[in-house]
Structures are given as C-alpha cells and as structure tokens.
Amino acid sequence: MSAEPSLQADIFPSIINLVPTRSQTSYTALPCNRELLFSVVVDNHCRIRGERLDTPAGAIKFPIDLIDLIVHPQVDQMGNTVVILYGEARYSPTEWVYTTQLRIKTGTGNRKEAIRLVDKGFFQIGKWLPPITIRVIDPLVKRIKLEFKFINQQFEYLPRFENGDVTLRFKDGSTLCVDKALLALHSRYMASFVHDAAQGATIDMGDFEMEAFRELLYQIYATRRPIETDLPKIAKAANAFKADIILSKLTAHIFALDMGFVQKMQFALFLELDQTLSELVYVAEQRGELTARITPQIREECTRWGITVPQLIDVMLRHIYPSRAIIPGRYFRPMMMFAEEHSLRRLLNSLGEMMLMEPPLTPQMMLDHLQLAHRYQHGNLFRACLLRIEGSFKTRVSQLMALPQFNDLPEAMRKEIVDRHCSGWALKDQHLAGLPTCRTIREVTLTKGGPPRSLLDKDDRFDSPDEMRSIEAFGSAHDMKMTY
C-alpha cells in the first residue's frame, strides 16, 4: 500500500505534472496507434503530461490530484476507435467522486490546423460510476483534447481499522481494531459480546470471514462507501450480527431499486433479508399489490360449478405446493380464470394439460374446450381438440359448426378446424388419434406394416393401461386394411 499523502484533494491542487498552457499543447501518442494523439488540460491553465501504461495495454494515464485519469482507446466491431475515459485512485483504500465540466476538441494530424470544440457536458467520474465513452467515427480525427474544470471533488480515505478499544480476530489470523461503542450502537447482539470486553481486549470472531465484516464496518463508520458496493457480504454480516440499522439501510436500498415487486422479493430472498421481505409484503398488501383479485366473474364461475372461493384457493395451493394434489374437474375452469387474473402462467398451463383428458362428449363441451384454448392461448388444448375432430368426435363436427358461438371463434381457428375435419390424417385411421404408443418396434412389408402381432393382441382384455386410457379419452381404434 502507498502511504497516504499529507495534502487533501479538495484543498490543495496537485502541481506535479502540470505545465502552463501558454506553451504549445503537448500530446501523448498511443502505444498501439501512434497516429492518435491525446491531450488533457485542467482548469484552462494546466496541461498534464501523459504516461503510457502496460496495464491495461494501450492506455494512457494523466495524473490529476489524487486520481489518475485513464484514457483507454479500443476498437469496436465496425473498426471505429472507442475511447474509454475513467479514473483510478492513486491511494487505497479510498472512495471518491469528481464532478467536472468537460469539453472535447478534435483535430487532424496537421498541427498547423486548429482544433475545434465538438462536444461538451457535465459529468461525474468516480470509483463506482460507469466510464465516459467517446466513439471516434471520423478516420480524419488524429488529435483529441480533453479540457476539464472540476466543480466538486469528494475524496475520502477509508478507515484501516488499526485503532480502537477492542480487537477482532478472524479465522485467518487477520485483525480489525474497532470502537465497541459504535458496534453496540448498531446492534444489541454485538453489544452483548463487547459489553464485558476490557480496553484493548481481543475478541475471537470464530469462522466468520474478515472481508464481509469489514464491509459492514464501512457502513457502521458512516463512510462514503456506497451500500451497494458488495450487497451479499454486507447482508451476510448484518444478518449474522443483527445490525438492525444497517439492515434498515439495506431494506431502504432495495425499496428504491428500479425493479418490480417480484424481482425485489427474489433479490431479498437471495440476500436472506427476512426484515426486507416482511416489509415488502406489508407495503405491497397496503398498496393492494398482493390483494387477491377475486373478480365477480371468478365468483360467478365458482358458483356455477358449486364451489366456494376459499375452497378454490385451498385446492389450488395444495396442488401448487407441496403435494401436487390432483385437482377435481369442477375446479378447472374457475381456477384457470383465477390463474389468468393473477398471471400464474405455469399453473394455467398445468390446468390446460389436465383438461386434455376431459373427453368432450357433446358439441357444446367441444366448443367450451376451443373457447378455453383461445382465451388462455393454450396451444396443446387446441391441438387435442383438432385430434379429436379427426377421430372420436368426427361424427359431431357438423353439430359443433352449427352452434351460434362457433362463429365467435377467430377465423384462423375455424379454418383449421374445417381443414382437419376434411383432410386430417386420422379420418381414415384412428391409430393416428390416440395416445402415443409404447410399441416402438415396427415391421413393414410391401403391403402392410405395424408392430409385431402376438396372440395377446387379439384379446382386448390384455390392453395396456395407456391403451385403455386412450380408448376412454379418444374413442376406440379400428384397424383399416388400407391407409392413405
């Protein structure tokens, strides 16, 4: 570690590497592209000599006070030069943010030609801030001059925890000296184990890692270190040592994030922040975000099928978790309506798959299946209807089309229904209209084909469970001597 300088950044400007601009502008060439030259000027009166860096390769640093301004040109996919501009503190550990006016001037490689002001803005450069990116889209640009006027400089040395009235020893042998009064102020739990510690006492921290606790201390000591710097470590330490004030700060930070309620819940779960989860749920309930939306339509659908809303919720939860309990058929439609209202897409898909095994015995039931497939965008349910239209339901399709509500279906659905009714593969052979066969070994000749037949195949009493379920759901299959 470098020693901390004696001069403060916001009081004394650095005079090292500064040259009056009354002389000709000094440019620094890139190691990888000596045609592109850079110059940095601060406060209109000082230009800074650039120094080429080995790491990152091709970059130049311009020392400014307590930071190094890094100019790192790169090449994008289009072959254009992209200049990445950021800063690095010259001392550690520190936190810093500089606010500056920036003017960008460009010129050709001919030093006799003047450079022109092409861009300007008000920027922040900091340890945790994204870099400034400058794309050079004109190949004639060979000189770039960056002019800075710093408006605000925030630079803070983080505590090294070398002084304090107690010493914390960690499993790797590292130590942190802290003020036990500050620990006690932020956590009753920490207050309990430092209360009896004498001045200069050493406290064993067990297996807890030093880096996570140090991140917690940066927050306890009210440094400029942003709380989002390392949220997993801060949350781990704050949870372990019950630092209530820091836990409240973490909660406030998560509340302020620009993300949805579910994403915030998932983030809080990842960080194991029980307090944050409780407050998220409470606030969501107060705002109505978690209020179960039991619409009049859902209540009417429940009444139609002879069930109550609490019964519906109970059956739904038992199916979702933990037992995956089977849902009785009369719950399907009200639950699908509820799932759609609450954006429970996975449950909605599951219910649609269950409805595949509900045989539509009448034209009205088939129409109901088609309407559900359209309303909930359930492609598998619609495809099952088409398969039945080719097979077990083909004799009643004309009755289906005669229903007034049939014309309310989208035109594309109606066209596909008519097409499958007229030209479906299973119209001539209902072997193409059942459940998938498990008889995957087949035999073919010039005139016929199929699975090898045995004496048991001639006796329906030896049907497999899948075959019996297939007959129940789709109708019996009839062998055809000729297929098309």
TrEMBL record:
Residues 164-229 form the BTB domain. Signal peptide: none annotated. SUPFAM superfamilies: POZ domain. This is BTB domain-containing protein. The lineage of its organism: Eukaryota, Metazoa, Ecdysozoa, Nematoda, Chromadorea.
